[in-house]
Design a protein that fits this description.
Layout: E1 10-15, H1 25-36, E2 41-44, H2 49-52, H3 62-73, E3 77-81, H4 89-94, H5 121-138, E4 144-148, H6 160-173, H7 178-184, H8 212-240, E5 246-247, E6 249-250, H9 259-262, E7 270-272, H10 282-299, E8 305-309, H11 328-338, E9 341-346, H12 373-385, E10 400-403, H13 406-414, H14 425-439, E11 443-446, E12 457-460, H15 470-479, E13 483-487, H16 509-513, E14 515-522, E15 529-533, E16 536-549, E17 553-558, E18 567-574, E19 577-582, E20 584-586, H17 588-601, E21 616-621, E22 624-629, E23 635-644, E24 651-657, E25 662-665
The protein binds alpha-D-galactopyranose (GLA) and zinc ion (ZN).
Residues 151-152, 272, 274, 309, 315, 347, 357, 360 line the site of alpha-D-galactopyranose.
């Protein structure tokens, strides 16, 4: 599999010329403006089905031919989309089965987008036909660069076809053995022993929503339904354009689909990045975004990804849609590249006149002019990106990893007990990631079934669910010299949410950590646990594990609760490595103080050998070091050694980074 597909960073985004079909002079103006803004790519056809197939079986490609040719003449790479994200009205009218049935059992009417059944044979056939027609038509077009399959796959359908498919899926999953399912689903509880697969339906409020294993199975099924829908979409594309890479755009921490599993089917991962850059906690937003980039980068073992969408100015869907100050879009783009993106793409090129998204930011505003703040910023960024060919295809080698697993997020957010509110598994993982990020130490963010043997430090926060092989992988990691850190809520249940017996964490993890947990306490929202660790006192939230030592040693203890004095931080030597158990839910201060000496001990060095002011973050990718100021004040950095500014070629030993400024160093 190739690491890069183009010699330049892709600079482009969603382009909807079909909305301007009656004012074609705009198309020529678009080409002129794209050239000016150093745009080298356009993503077209995402929601074009009703124009491409205005009547069943009658295709109309002339407008797209014209656009593809124009884009090609202007040297733009076309990312061609399949239109399955939204369908023409005639289709829903003639074949109601293509529409989704929601959880309440009622079929949706025609409307919005992403409103389709994943199992409908009619819909799959229609999608396959239009995709084949597109691939036939453009397979030899010189501008065709990449396929963008559908748009932000999401949601689920509860129609009878999907129920049938779910039952067939369950039969495979449980070897067609209903007693096996009854055992794994703990069917003795509330008289839930099924005698046939036909008695099982999708989880829903008016039906079954209290069987944890059913809810997990359904999420796995929905993931597999999306994958099979996607495979159906790409079959004609693979057949006709085997050399053209395929992606679909993902949405940050959307957990309705196991993205880590879906990503295995993509040639390149791409995602849509909409941080709330106008939030007062700018640094927090920067960390969350870095974490997301690293999740997507890690999906394909560090292979560069695309930032398929981002806004060049504001968005339209938050309660308040504030304008980000100039410089922020540029910094966000540089952050994406620093973390492994080979593209900076926008939603959208030109604002539509009507429709739900007419106030969403775009490079070209309703005024239609280039003499705007956003256009000038885009043009400037385009110039910078055109100087970053050296970044394309390059990678970052991380020696640390945070395990953040999609299936585990379902389990952590799904069980009933302890604290029922405020569970945000991705946030908890991000807090641990932050300790590395702030130090400029790159970290991968990986699912629990990834080979972790190459890392020095692995943090596995809230590893509640263990998939087959996880215990073995974690214990041999430590055995062979790795440093492993786990937290409260580790090793509780298997993939069907059946609790492990014999004390938590499961099986040999007790030997690895040298502890076992007898009880777990939950804290009220305004309650904090107090922990003595080193010379300091720290506070925790949410949960506290009450541990017994079985070989491990205490590094820190609880100062609060009836379990005052019991171990809150432990360490155990196991084989050639060390395993730490943090029995509470710490804040940034503890995590930072705790990780720092471990990283030092393992020789995990920051990407730049300079002490950086708070809010200035360094990240090395390939041969370039990106220094980013995520604050609204200018910051001075002394490098202690000599670097060359990659963009200006000046030689530097120190620099002043303006607010939201950055430097790219060689
Ligand atoms: C998503 C979609 C786009 C558009 C943007 C608006 O990412 O993929 O079509 O709706 O959001 O922010
Ligand atoms: Zn359905």
């Amino acid at each position: 599999m190739k690491d890069s597909y183009y010699e330049h960073i892709i600079h482009g985004g969603d382009y909807n010329p079909d909305q301007w079909i009656n004012t074609k002079e705009i198309w020529d103006e678009d080409m002129r403006l794209m050239d000016l803004a150093h745009i080298n790519s356009a993503t077209v056809g995402i929601f074009s089905w009703s124009l491409l197939e205005p009547e069943e079986g009658v295709y109309s490609f002339s407008w797209l031919d014209e656009i593809m040719d124009k884009l090609d003449r202007h040297g733009k790479k076309v990312i061609l989309s399949t239109p399955s994200g939204a369908r023409p009205p005639w289709m829903a009218e003639k074949y109601p089965e293509v529409l989704r049935v929601s959880e309440n059992g009622i079929r949706n009417e025609y409307g919005v987008r992403h409103n389709h059944c994943l199992a409908s044979p009619v819909y799959r056939k229609k999608v396959s036909e239009i995709n084949r027609a597109l691939a036939e038509r453009y397979k030899d077009h010189p501008a065709l660069f990449m396929w963008h399959i559908s748009n932000e796959y999401s949601g689920e359908c509860h129609c009878e076809l999907c129920q049938q498919a779910f039952r067939e899926w369950l039969k495979k999953e449980y070897d067609n053995d209903i007693e096996k399912l009854n055992f794994k689903w703990w069917g003795g509880f509330w008289s839930h022993r099924y005698s046939s697969f036909s008695q099982i339906s999708s989880p829903k409020d008016r039906g079954e929503n209290h069987v944890p294993a059913l809810k997990l199975a359904w999420k796995r099924f929905v993931t597999d339904s999306h994958i099979s829908f996607y495979e159906n979409e790409i079959a004609p594309i693979r057949e006709l354009t085997p050399e053209i890479p395929v992606t679909t755009n993902l949405m940050r921490f959307y957990n309705g689909i196991d993205y880590q599993k879906l990503s295995e089917h993509l040639d390149i991962v791409s995602w849509d990045n909409y941080p709330e850059w106008t939030h007062p906690d700018f640094l927090g937003i920067a960390c969350e975004t870095a974490f997301a980039h690293d999740i997507f980068r890690s999906m394909k073992n560090g292979k560069p990804f695309y930032m398929m969408e981002s806004t060049p100015s504001l968005i339209n869907w938050r309660p308040v849609n504030k304008l980000p100050a100039s410089g922020i879009t540029e910094l966000a783009a540089i952050q994406a590249v620093a973390h492994g993106a080979d593209s900076v793409q926008y939603f959208q090129w030109r604002k539509g006149r009507g429709g739900h998204e007419k106030f969403h930011g775009a490079v070209v505003d309703h005024c239609g002019k280039e003499d705007t703040r956003v256009f000038r910023d885009t043009e400037k960024l385009g110039r910078v990106l055109s100087q970053l060919d050296r970044a394309v295809g390059s990678r970052t080698k991380a020696r640390a990893a945070v395990i953040c697993d999609w299936e585990n997020s379902w389990a952590v957010e799904g069980y009933c007990g302890y604290r029922r509110d405020g569970r945000d598994y991705f946030k908890v993982c991000e807090r641990w990631y932050r300790a590395f990020w702030e130090r400029g130490i790159p970290a991968d963010v990986v699912p629990m079934d990834r080979d972790i043997s190459g890392y020095d430090i692995v943090v596995a926060p809230y590893l509640y669910m263990l998939k087959d092989g996880t215990v073995q992988r974690l214990s041999s990691f430590v055995q062979n010299g790795g440093t492993l850190i786990a937290t409260c809520l580790t090793g509780i249940a298997d993939r069907d949410d059946l609790c492990y017996l014999g004390g938590f964490p499961a099986e040999e993890l007790k030997d690895v950590f040298g502890v076992w947990c007898e009880e777990t306490d939950s804290l009220y929202d305004d309650e904090l646990s107090r922990i003595a660790y080193g010379e300091k006192e720290y506070k925790g939230t949410e949960l506290c594990d009450i541990l017994h030592l079985i070989g491990g040693e205490t590094l820190g203890s609880f100062l609060s609760g009836f379990y005052k004095g019991s171990p809150a931080v432990t360490k155990n030597s196991y084989g050639k490595g060390e395993a730490y158990y943090v029995a509470f839910c710490p804040g940034d201060d503890f995590i930072s103080d705790f990780i720092s000496p471990l990283a030092d001990k393992k020789g995990l060095l920051p990407d730049i050998n300079a002490s950086l002011p708070k809010g200035v973050i360094a990240r090395k990718r390939g041969e370039l070091i990106y220094l980013m100021n995520f604050t609204s004040q200018s910051k001075t950095v002394d490098f202690g050694e000599t670097y060359t500014d990659h963009l200006t070629k000046s030689v530097l030993t120190s620099a002043v980074l303006p607010e939201y400024g950055y430097l790219i160093l060689e």
